[in-house]
Write a structure and sequence with these properties.
Elements lengths: L12 H4 L2 E4 L4 E5 L4 E5 L2 H8 L4 E3 L4 E4 L5 E3 L2 E3 L9 E3 L2 H20 L1
Length: about 110
């Protein structure tokens, strides 16, 4: 029964997190495929995470993990497939275009390897 349990207290944001939201007083809410965790981080940790190139700012307080995006449609960003069960975020047309360009650029790089 404990085989599939994950240690959510020690998540690695760059590999485990789909997106995160920055709140007041150093509180960061991490959103994964099947969890939402709030943690209090120092100003240095917060700044380093927000400046990490793996994440892209889609709104004033929300950053998405670019490597976890599955697709874009209906002004939403999907992390699994476009079915009702996947996590999704609303995204502006401007940010949607930037994410599309990033995805196209990186899918081309992957095919060259």
């Amino acid at each position: 029964m404990n085989v599939a349990l994950k240690d959510y207290a020690n998540i690695e944001p760059r590999t485990d997190t789909l997106f995160f939201k920055v709140g007041a007083h150093g509180l960061i809410s991490f959103h994964g495929p099947n969890y939402n965790i709030k943690k209090r981080w120092s100003a240095e940790q917060r700044t380093a995470l927000m400046e990490d190139p793996s994440f892209f700012r889609v709104s004033s307080d929300c950053y998405v993990n670019l490597r976890k995006i599955a697709g874009l449609s209906d002004d939403c960003l999907y992390f699994d497939d476009a079915s009702g069960g996947s996590k999704r975020l609303p995204i502006s047309k401007r940010k949607q275009q930037i994410v599309k360009q990033w995805m196209e650029r990186h899918s081309g790089e992957a095919s060259l390897v």
